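Possible race condition, two jobs.
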Amino acid sequence: MIGGELRAQGFDVTLGGGVNLTREPRNGRTFEYAGEDPLLAGTLVGNMMKCEQGQHVIGDIKHYAVNDQETGRFVVNSVISKRAMQESDLLAFHIAISIANPGAVMCSYNRINGDFGCENSYTLQDVLKKDWGFKGFVISDWGGTHSTEKASSAGLDQEQPMADYFGLKLKEAVDAGSVPLSEIDDHARRVLYAEFLAGIVDDPPHKGVVNIEKGLEVAQRIEEKSIVLLKNNQAVLPIIPSKVHSIAIIGGHADVGMISGGGSAQVDPPGGNAIMPPGKGGTHWQDHIWFPTSPLQALRAKLPNTTIEFNPGTDLRSAASLAKTADVAIVFAYQWESEGMDLPNLSLPDNQDSLIEQVAAANPHTIVILETGTAATMPWLDKVAGIVEVWYAGSAGHKALANILLGDVNPSGKLAMTFPKTEADLPRPSIAPLPPNDEGQGHYAVNSETRVSSYAVHYDEGSEVGYKWYEAQHKQPLFPFGFGLSYTSYAYSGLSVDSSTKTVRFTVKNTGKRTGTEIAEVYATLPKEADESFKRLVGWKRVTLAPGESQDVTVAIDPQELQTFDESKDTWMLTNGEYGILVGPSSESTPLRASLRIH
């Protein structure tokens, strides 16, 4: 859909494809990315870019690499070992690139072990172009170029958006002999390769009409598969019209819309911002923008015989009073985030925790709808009956949510990231602020002297990102990676493993009363010699089952997912020994266990 819309508007390259791991859940761009696991993120983004490039639009994967926070994003030095980088952030990119064969890779703003992402010879030349054989071109993030000779030599092929370093300065460097013509040839050849690869030379873009209705249908279908049911005590969901005669909708501007994420990934809503007066729609890239997607209206349309009243939630006593009179209370809570900033914490802003507490005290049948781009802490977890994570629900989010709440769609989404109980459980309990006088632009003045920023983040947790960190540190999360409930239930049985083909087989049965889709997850633990104290996601399969139906599932494990990176030999190694294979509905629930032997 995105590729088709870009082409219809005359564009020949996409600037999407964010594959950065959720190493720091407070990262303001978490909502743009695809989770904390390299196999998951790489597979999702790789296939997304493959499809966009299939629409004759050059694919682009970003932000390469270790660009995992927004604080000081133009200067921060990401300090990480080569093994850790290879087994986490770089692995996600490698998987995505191997699937998509994209024309372009966008290098990142941050420094990586001292060198900026767009002039880093290790990541650009040694890994991307030599080890992985990437044939496309490296494009800088906007304003992410810092040199001419160094960047050109390190593997940057194209500067954006201006020509500060790759314009006149590049010509002068060639004339002076400090940039050889062979580098210019290579830069040009790579750009041409990408243009031919995507088909834009043989079939140039020609503007057409964007199919808005189809786009809205796609957005709704994807959101229906992405909503995650986190809690459902005493089957408070789905709502059964014959049993629920009155509903209180509270908070979150749910009478008029649903929130979206800010920055360059912001999608402008039709008609402007839903919570601002007409003609005053937000246009700044960090405006808090609500789509005109009213959950209140969507539920009223599906429940014409049910009394549904709205309270803005700004007065806690008034909100609790309405909740007390209703059969079910639904609180809409949000956490806005954006490029260019990180969240101070994972708590809900604007006194929303207190609102939920008050409503839950007034009505035991309280359901919380979370509109967030990342994890949220939940001090009220044990006091509410239901929790539904809808993320940033998109252009038809109200319709998707209504279908989930009424059971017309059975939820099947699983968490692509761990929800911690508290920020104290994260590898870094807080994000360090920039040093005094450092405005995050690369250089800053102290007593008339110009100094390079000393701002750094040390990723001492290495490859222990997300669920791997919690398992290695023996920390219990609020909700584990891969978790998600359904309106039916599933049973796993019959695990067998073929060590010669590295193939896993098992059976999943729908033991409930509704048709549903389960995402069965396969994990592996490595032999003791590999020195790794956590499981890894190595595969998954979506299985749709009618009530009582069973299905045999086969998952082939790519040997890459079992390897470790040996820094001394600068290569990947497959350790001989016994691997544990674990299968189940989440990273924390793996009832099936077997062994795989590699000699």
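Job #2 (started ~2 s after job #1):
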Amino acid sequence: MTINRLEWQQLLPNTAACTGLFEREYRREPLNIAITQPRLQKSLHTFCHQHATASPFMLIKAVDSRAYLSLIHDTVKNIQPTGSEIFGSRYEINNAVISRVDAQSKSDNFAATDDCLYEEWLETEQLFGCLRKHNDSYTLEPGLIHKANGGILILSVRTLLTQPHLWFRLKQAVVSQRFQWFSVDDTRPLPLSIPSMPLELKVILVGDRYGLGELQELEPELIEQVIYTEFETDLVVNQDEDIVTWCEYLNSVASHYQLPSIDASAYPSLINIAVRKSGDQEKLPLCPQLLSHILSDAVPFAAPAITAQSLEQSEQEKLWRESYLSEMVLDDIDLGQVRIETEGFVIGQINGLSVLEYPGHPRAMGEPSRISCVVHLGDGEITDVERKSELGGNLHAKGIMIMQAFIAAELASDQQFPFSGSIVFEQSYGEVDGDSASLAGLCALMSALSQQPINQQIAVTGSVDQFGNVQTIGGINEKIEGFFDVCNSRELTGSQGVILPLTNIRHLCLKNDVVEAVKAGRFHLWAIDHAQDALPLLTGLPYVDENKPSIIGSIQERITQVAGNDRNRLPWPFRWLNWFNRG
């Protein structure tokens, strides 16, 4: 058995050992991804310096926002080879006749103006230019591909997928290395004949995994030939130098967005906030938008530098602004509109933990869910009420089936299981999905089968496999805090707490109220790695013991009693056979 009662120090990232690192003076260098994105840096260098016969396209998995496009653009500008060659053309219009010659000067109307450009959203005329008519005169206006001719263009995949005609025309021009003029209005041809112009252009496409997946379906052969890389979302922290790297990067972000300096006292708070975002004590986020927003929120409270106090004030104010919905959920529980029991012992009932995400609301919130199970004589089928009522998702159904398989293997009976049962999320009126309640459901079922009551002061979260191993789940901080808030509003007893997977310890970064309660012994967290570790905590009985009452022993005794009663139900002419089974 592995039952770890967690100390308060395990509920937050360990920043105490890094005090000396925080006291260093970090310079506000220009934002440079080289120290945090070595794969991206190397891939961009390869793309910028590759042979002319290689694919002119590159894919980067990243958020396709202006902040990311700008960062990639700045990196490309630093590593791009310099050249004095002039790319482009000069168009002249005389008497409604358009002629073209190769550009001789960068001041020519269709000579390239930059070797790297980017844009988050584009329309046809912005990308390809256009022919305009005013009165009886015509003018040609260049697009982005003309301005970046000979260089690199950085675009959003989302922009091209929502306007497929842009992508197909861009691909044709880049691959053929020739730009053919066309009418923006497909129903009207160009009023003048415009000579085509040579085009030497590379394109970097930036998008999330879904967008890149759609592009792959659209262009499978092209995607096979391109350079692919990713903007890494987190920095893995394995040693002190990784903390130093993140602090340097953080100061670069502050400098890039012209934010105040960061005081040494702010770094532990920043790491706590960052871990809440990454969901892992050993990973710190690298998203420049996220980090700049965290620092920007603290600016109204910073004088003159961003400190731990200013960060705490900004986080408290942000929580207050966004807490109306969570307060309404908690009020429903306090008023008894949603029934959650946090006292006493009940057979076949347990407090599972859920994470609620409402459309349009920026913050996920934890809420306990009352899971109940009843059993009766039957054919061994365990009914998942959520699935039967079409309110359970596929992952939820999978978790219930795995739970049943574990129980069948544990009892290891040659006879058909003589009980049937049903498991339900009480007062659940929307879809339930995910397998994080499978451990709670298993405990409720074992309680109902053994007739041993469960302590309602303890909530449970975790998924199980067919061997009973407890596995990692998501949203662990929100789930713990959701149950803590319910218990705290009813007054902490010192016996309340949460059972969680052992592998989730590294994901803990709990709010101060929970940490202080655990520190004072008024709330508890137990980390386990097997289902048999949960039931002794919940029922007070050992999971299995040949010498005294246990959960498995109680279930087997019930099965034996039912089997004996079944023999007594033989038709009266054959009841004499029971005589041979005595003893």
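The CA atoms of residues 259 and 377 lie 68 Å apart.
Logs attached separately.
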